[in-house]
Write a structure and sequence with these properties.
Blueprint lengths: L3 E7 L8 E7 L7 E11 L1 H8 L4 H11 L12 E9 L11 E5 L1 E3 L2 E2 L7 E5 L3 E4 L6 H4 L3 H11 L9 E5 L4 H12 L3 E6 L4 H6 L4 E4 L12 E6 L8 H6 L3 E9 L9 H12 L7 E6 L3 H9 L6 E5 L2
Parallel strand pairs: 10-11, 10-13, 11-12, 13-14, 15-16
Antiparallel strand pairs: 1-2, 3-4, 3-8, 3-16, 4-5, 5-9, 6-7
Length: about 325
């Protein structure tokens, strides 16, 4: 058995072309870790920000302080995993070789691990790691953790009751598609803001109303809402988005994914698994790329118009 594996390595910060496919040493699990043979990962908006370092100076300093100066400290990016347990440390009791699992390689902003742009990764058994829901594929499992956990972070700030009107700005993205489904599960009447080409998608996920943010009469379609949820953050804006901040009932809330630091507790991760198993949460996949085309996957996500998630197959 070879101790080498294929991995996509970030040779520095910059354009997608800094990502190069290489042969590297396969990781070995510590006593409390499992070795996962990765079947699929995903390219997230956070991956793009970290790799590109295309942000104001203060953000660049913060990113490099956390991830490495000049180039990433761990050159293999990616924090979303679905795959099969291939080995384990002597103290691991929760998983066995052959178990199909999915994971998010972050427990908090200071407790995270890159490495899913590869054929194998090691993770502690107590992290955001669980048996994969049996009713979804490995590709679909890779489309759950990132958007699902960030949507859960937003939903935790709400107290939606049946009949509440909720507006979701950016409802067709990885976070928005999850927030939409969670709001519907809580009993909300949801209005989705997205482009016209994504109307059918958000309606299929349960959206009651839709607004095309590019339409000339978009602002006039706004009602008032108990919650306005901005699932795209400061990276995108429009006249409609600015107006939506005022379209709130007395006692209502405007919530942005860029407000505060998102938390990713294991309770939220396990809740995602439960909602998927119950059929209440369906992952949305836009495109699937092989590991060898990671540059193209990053270029597509960087364009800012993906629907749901972009998945990369590593095996």
């Amino acid at each position: 058995m070879t101790n080498k594996m294929k991995a996509v390595v970030a040779t520095g910060y910059g354009s997608p072309e800094v990502l190069q496919l290489r042969k590297v040493n396969k990781p070995q699990p510590n006593k409390n870790e499992v070795l996962i043979k990765i079947h699929a990962t995903s390219v997230t908006a956070s991956d793009i920000l970290i790799r590109g370092l295309n942000a104001p100076l203060i953000y660049k300093l913060i990113v490099q302080l956390a991830f490495g100066f000049g180039k990433p400290r761990n050159p293999i990016l990616g924090m979303v995993v679905s795959g099969t347990i291939a080995g384990k440390g002597k103290n691991v009791t929760k998983f066995n070789p052959g178990d199909e699992v999915f994971a998010y390689c972050s427990m908090s902003p200071m407790k995270h691990r890159f490495g899913s742009y590869a054929e194998y990764i090691c993770l502690p058994q107590d992290w955001n790691l669980a048996l994969k829901p049996t009713n979804i594929s490995f590709e679909e499992a890779a489309a759950i953790p990132y958007g699902g956990l960030l949507a859960a972070h937003l939903m935790k700030k709400t107290n939606i009751t049946k009949g509440d009107k909720v507006l979701i700005y950016g409802a067709s993205g990885s976070i928005g598609t999850m927030a939409l489904q969670m709001a519907k599960d809580a009993g909300a009447i949801v209005t989705s803001v997205c482009s016209r080409k994504n109307f059918e998608l958000v309606k299929s996920l349960g959206s009651d109303e839709v607004i095309d943010y590019t339409a000339s009469n978009a602002e006039s379609q706004l009602e008032t809402y108990q919650y306005v949820i901005d699932a795209v953050g400061n990276s995108k804006s429009s006249v409609l988005k600015a107006k939506s901040k005022q379209a709130i009932n007395k006692g209502g809330k405007y919530l942005s994914i860029d407000q505060g630091t998102p938390t990713t507790p294991k309770t939220a991760f396990l809740m995602l698994k439960k909602l998927v198993e119950q059929g209440k949460l369906k992952p949305v996949i836009d495109r699937v790329y092989p590991l060898e085309e990671m540059v193209a996957a990053h270029r597509y996500v960087e364009g800012g118009h993906k629907r749901g998630n972009v998945v990369v197959l590593t095996a």
